[in-house]
Write a structure and sequence with these properties.
By secondary structure, the chain is mainly alpha-helical. Helices cover 46% and strands 6% of the residues. Among the domains are: 158 residues, no CATH class; 107 residues, Phosphorylase Kinase, domain 1 (2-Layer Sandwich), CATH 3.30.200.20; 184 residues, Orthogonal Bundle (Transferase(Phosphotransferase), domain 1), CATH 1.10.510.10. The strands form 4 sheets. It has a 5-stranded antiparallel beta sheet with strand order 2-3-4-6-5, covered by helices on one side. The protein has a two-stranded antiparallel ribbon with strand order 1-11. Helix 1 packs across helix 5. InterPro entries: Adaptor_Cbl_N_dom_sf, Kinase-like_dom_sf, MLKL-like_MCAfunc, Prot_kinase_dom, Sel1-like, Ser-Thr/Tyr_kinase_cat_dom, Ser/Thr_Kinases-Pseudokinases, TPR-like_helical_dom_sf. GO terms for molecular function: ATP binding; protein serine/threonine kinase activity.
């Protein structure tokens, strides 16, 4: 097919047809101006209930009315553009309308780079996706720089194609994010769809590259073969990992444990949400425990008590929170409630709860008979290599669990690893633990933690802000990898790092200048390489070249079994822009009518809508400009704009006449369906699912499940209840419980009530 035909195909009006929902396009339908009232001076009640679009009514109690359907509490907001232009400013030349898309792609590239850098799983697939996004970024940047040479490129058809291209790149970003983290990958593993989804995205990407005349200088067959090899390797590694990891990350069938998603959700809500904080468990009663005056601990703040009911020993650690303004008793209670769910991991100390005794607050955990790792190896100086690696594996399992639920320990050291009676190592002391996405608390250096602190954090310690080598750096998983590397050295050598140095400043300067401890003769070469390799070791000064916890676990596991394997390298490709040699008529030039909504991009229109909704504003003239923006971009084929156009129609944001409600709703549902199917937008999937429930169509479950798997909380409740009770789908209690738990963890009130009613723990 010629380039001209491809471009015409992009703009060819699709003929609407009846589907199972009964939707169709009327040949004599009213115009937009007829559907919406054009009277911008229409009176609007100032006390309108702005929550009308956020209903949480139980969707499945009554199938007769769409008003019973649970609706999203928030609307979709793109995260790649800032609201940089005010409404009504000077209209830009049509060519400049391409440039916000260039900025979008550049921002997405940075996000995909970060996803790749911190990926715990499927890193090679993420790398191939990163290569493609890098190609796209280079192509559009060159197009912007050399725009005078390629003036014929700036046509309406290419604008539409570029919008679609940017949306495909956003899908790539979302896919990479989900397959790189264990708590989000389950939906792909259950459907065995990683391969298919990758190839679908790759094909869409390559098709847009061809339509836009952005040429890759590598044979597509060669690239396809390399893609297949990368997918095979990553999926093979994932399969091997799930078979070996255990430790609560997987269940007996080597499937990912649902508790990972639950903990991750609770932790995210605690870190990022003000209105949806998890509920804290009730405190323990200290009278249920007997004090042991002979209990021994490395700290005077820790003692042992025995639970009277079953004679189980527990460690009581006194918490000092009055000196920290960032911590409250309630926040500690909520954190402990979340930490209690970590008991699913065999590599993490079990949290029992909080206990108050007069003015004292105690953190109660399982008792570790052999004390800390440091105490253990001092009393066992003859540990053999097999036991050393076994201890390292225990810790690696615990760290993999924390990474899977997106939590960081932040204070790894041999004093915070406890050894049980069975000589199993468990990670403990989570006093500084926070989510991976949350800003880092300023932790002051001390002689204990400085020995394990990554060089990038040593450069950013607040104590040294006036030093020449001071650099700001957020604590992340790669900092934790460095700390684990120091622990691995200590486990092998049975002594603390830099044991002869008691100066914080001296240790800091040594590490920043590149000095690292040395292994003694006899260490296994692969163990040494894992820790201190100058190219890929945990001690690497550049965080990007450190291994992730998945790789560290697999290496230690293979070491333990005397089976070491190596990894293969990635390939990248070069790009060039091919000049459009076709003759394009003047009437093909960009013709979107920007005069109707001013100098406003789609992202800015969405953000403006969010702003006026938040502020309870009812300025119809502003909404009309937002509507015009959605309408024009939707006409250009933008899926996101189609969703928002449907939203404005369905909720009658412009106060159109009541007699046209059915017509507005029908058009809105057609737009929601397109956004749900083509754009995979969860809010559209939920709303279209609601519509199908009204029609009593069984396919509603399909759309609810898609929306739920894409993170929509109310869809989690809807599909959970459908499965649990067997409404419109085959009854599946296990699946129902899983989705209801996820909804409850996200503080969905109907889900919480139903879980309590049918005794589903969450």
């Amino acid at each position: 097919m010629s380039l001209r035909k491809l471009k015409k195909k992009l703009f060819k009006s699709s003929s609407h047809h009846h589907d199972e929902s009964g939707l169709s396009t009327r040949s004599n339908s009213a115009s937009t101006s007829e559907i919406f009232s054009e009277d911008s001076n229409r009176n609007v009640s100032s006390d309108k209930n702005t929550e009308e679009h956020e209903e949480q009514t139980d969707v499945l109690d009554d199938f007769e009315g769409a008003n019973n359907l649970a609706q999203p509490a928030t609307t979709l907001v793109l995260d790649v553009c800032q609201f940089t232009a005010s409404m009504g400013s000077t209209i830009l030349d049509p060519v400049s309308k391409f440039f916000p898309i260039v900025g979008d792609i550049a921002n997405i590239l940075n996000q995909v780079i970060h996803i790749y850098d911190v990926a715990q799983h499927n890193k090679k697939i993420c790398g191939v996706l990163l290569d493609r996004v890098t190609v796209a970024d280079a192509a559009v940047r060159s197009l912007k720089i050399r725009r005078k040479e390629y003036i014929s490129f700036f046509t309406k058809s290419n604008y539409v194609a570029l919008l679609g291209f940017a949306n495909t790149i956003k899908e790539i970003r979302k896919f990479a994010s989900e397959i790189s983290q264990l708590s989000k990958i389950s939906k792909y593993l259950r459907a065995e769809s990683i391969d298919d989804t990758f190839r679908e995205l790759a094909k869409k990407f390559d098709d847009y590259m061809n339509v836009l005349q952005f040429a890759i200088t590598i044979d597509s067959k060669i690239q396809s073969a390399k893609d297949s090899q990368v997918i095979k390797e990553d999926l093979g590694t994932m399969k091997n990992y799930l078979e070996l990891i255990g430790g609560g990350i997987t269940n007996v069938d080597n499937k990912i444990n649902d508790v990972l998603t639950i903990i991750s959700t609770l932790n995210e809500n605690f870190n990022n949400s003000v209105n949806h904080q998890p509920t804290a468990d009730d405190p323990l009663n200290i009278n249920d425990y007997e004090f042991d005056p002979n209990s021994v601990s490395g700290s005077k703040k820790v003692h042992r008590r025995t639970r009277k009911s079953d004679r189980t020993d527990a460690a009581f650690k006194e918490l000092s929170i009055q000196d920290d303004p960032d911590i409250s008793v309630n926040s500690v209670s909520v954190q402990v409630t979340i930490l209690k769910k970590l008991q699913a991991s065999e590599g993490i100390i079990k949290f029992i709860g909080l206990c108050k005794d007069k003015d004292n607050l105690f953190l109660v955990t399982e008792w570790a008979e052999n004390g800390s790792l440091r105490e253990f190896y001092k009393s066992h100086p003859d540990l053999d290599p097999e036991k050393k690696i076994s201890i390292a594996l225990d810790i690696a399992r615990g760290l993999n669990f924390l990474a899977a639920v997106q939590m960081l320990h932040r204070d790894l050291s041999s004093e915070n690893i406890l050894i049980t009676l069975q000589k199993k190592a468990k990670i403990a002391n989570f006093s500084f633990s926070r989510g991976t996405s949350e800003a880092t608390r300023n932790i002051k250096a001390n002689i204990k933690n400085v020995r394990y602190t990554a060089p990038e954090k040593l450069r950013s310690l607040a104590d040294y802000k006036n030093q020449k080598d001071y650099r700001e750096h957020t604590y992340d998983t790669r900092c934790e990898v460095y700390s684990f590397g120091m622990l691995l050295w200590e486990i092998w050598e049975l002594k603390i790092p830099y044991e002869d140095d008691e100066s914080i400043i001296s240790i800091r300067e040594k590490v920043i200048k590149g000095y690292r401890e040395k292994f003694s003769p006899g260490v296994h070469p692969e163990y040494e390489r894992l820790v201190s390799s100058s190219t890929c070791g945990a001690w690497n000064d550049d965080p990007r070249f450190r291994p992730n916890f998945t790789e560290m676990f697999l290496t230690l596991k293979k070491l333990y079994e005397i089976m070491i394997q190596s990894e293969s390298a990635k390939n990248s490709s070069n790009i060039q822009i091919k000049e459009d040699e076709s003759n394009i008529d003047d009437d093909c030039m960009l013709t979107i009518d920007y005069t109707s909504f001013g100098d406003m991009t789609l992202n800015e229109a969405i953000m403006k809508h969010e702003e006026i909704t938040k502020n309870h504003e009812e300025d119809i003239s502003v909404k009309e400009k937002i509507w015009k923006c959605f309408e024009e971009y939707a006409a250009a084929g933008d899926i996101e704009a189609k969703y928002w156009k449907g939203y404005y129609l369905y909720y009658n944001e412009l106060k159109g006449p009541d007699e046209l409600k059915n017509q507005r709703d029908e058009e809105a549902m057609q737009l929601f369906k397109e956004a749900a199917d083509e754009g995979n937008i969860p809010e559209a999937q939920l709303r279209y699912g609601n519509y199908l429930v009204k029609l009593k169509k069984a396919s509603a479950a399909e759309y609810f499940q898609k929306a739920a798997d894409n993170g929509n909380v109310m869809a989690m409740f809807n599909i959970g209840k459908m499965y649990y009770i067997g409404i419109m789908v085959k009854k599946n209690i296990a699946e129902g419980e899983r989705y209801l738990r996820l909804a409850a963890c996200n503080q969905n009130k109907p889900a919480i009530e139903l879980c309590k009613k049918v005794n589903i723990s969450w």
